[in-house]
Amino acid sequence: MALLEVNHLDVRFALRGGDIQALRDVSFSLDRGERLGIVGESGAGKSVAAFSILNLIAQPGYIAGGDIHFDGQTLSAMSEHQLRQIRGHRISMIFQDPMMTLNPVLSIGEQMVECLRAHRRISHREAREIALDRLKQVQIPSPQKRLDQYPHELSGGMRQRIIIAIALLLDPDIIIADEPTTALDVTIQAEIMALLLELCEQHNVALMLITHDLGVVSQVTQRTLVMYAGRIIEQGPTKEIINDAQHPYTQGLINALPQMADPGQRLNQIRGAMPSLNAIPSGCAFNPRCDFATEHCRHVMPEFVTSGGCQVACHMVREMIEEAQHHA
Fold first, then answer.
1. Are 137 and 169 in contact (CB under 8 A)?
2. How far from 17 is each of 13, 14, 20, 278, CA to CA, in Å?
3. pLDDT the model gives residue 313
4. What CATH architecture applies to the domain 4-90+170-262+276-327?
5. d(C-alpha 98, C-alpha 158), whole Å
6. Are 217 and 238 spatial neighbours (Cβ–Cβ below 8 Å)?
7. What is the C-alpha separation between 45 and 23, in angstroms, rounded?
């Protein structure tokens, strides 16, 4: 049994003009110690999927259907009090912007001690020792000094290391990292991702990495979900998706990587833009941007079909598989 199972998740936002659907029929699982990537453009539904797991969706958003199971418990049926025992303790989250996560008026040490003592019955001194140990693990220089500093006194890279240290404080089973390196420069990004990967392997922590960067996904994750307009459209082993993407959208994301263009030439891009949630096209949501779209694609939503080790929601892929089977 998987550590985390998300089944047919449906998330909506209640607006004056009627509900709009942010996630539709999203299902995936995560095993203990596994590293899962969730990729897609802005607005694909990646963060909504992650926030739904811990019921952190702000009003007017709500979970309209489906269920979420964690280690034999049904998270989607838990009360707010029960969820507090899970959040930060067994499932930790690393957000995009460390300055939005850290409290500017409390020292780093105070924030780490407060987090520990909220979940464990330990003394202030014991909590501070654990906090110091975690800062050493994330390779912060002069960790003793950093405990008494405030967030504004630290660089962006250091703040992100502290966020990782806080995420590891209570030995979680899962870390959900939502674009953890967006605000950092490229060299620091690589350091932070390497550190996160190393710590997850050391502690056998499952990692759910949300990003739009397929380069990072290819280096860090074992399995990948590709999302578009609130739906998973392709999922499977990361190597297989990177080396032989099946869905035209996934192919477009890979072709848009800078290294895929010839030197001096314009970068490749997917034409058009992600549809807004209140104007998702009928049939396959990607059809207005797809070079292979047919009338069938414009009217009928594709079901998943197995291609190699991947699951792909695409009519064209289904037709290619059926044709190959017919000629076999």
1. no
2. 11, 8, 9, 10
3. 96
4. 3-Layer(aba) Sandwich (3.40)
5. 10
6. yes
7. 6
pLDDT tier at 39, thresholds 50, 70, 90: very high
Residues 183/9, Cβ–Cβ less than 8 Å: no
The tens digit of pLDDT for each residue in 213-260 reads 888 898 899 999 999 999 999 999 999 999 999 999 999 999 888 787
Question: Is there a contact between 238 and 221 (Cβ–Cβ < 8 Å)?
Answer: yes
What is the Cβ-side half-sphere exposure of residue 185, based on CA atoms within 13 angstroms? 3
C-beta atoms surrounding 135 within 10 Å: 25
Contacts of 145 (CB under 8 A, 6+ apart): none
Give the residue extent of every domain in the chain.
Answer: 4-90+170-262+276-327
In whole numbers, what is the pLDDT of the chain averaged over residues? 90
Strand partners, 67: 7
**pLDDT tens-digit readout, 156-210:** 889 988 998 999 898 899 999 998 877 677 788 888 888 889 988 988 999 999 9
- Classified as helix, coil or strand, 245 is coil
Tokens 């998943």, residue located: 304
Per DSSP, the three-state class of 291 is coil
Would the pTM of this model clear 0.85, i.e. be above it? yes
Q: Please give the angle made by the CA atoms of 88, 92 and 94, to the nearest 5 degrees.
A: 120
Q: Which residues contact 116 (CB under 8 A, 6 or more apart)?
A: 122, 127, 130, 131, 169, 170
Assigned token pair, 149: 């500093």
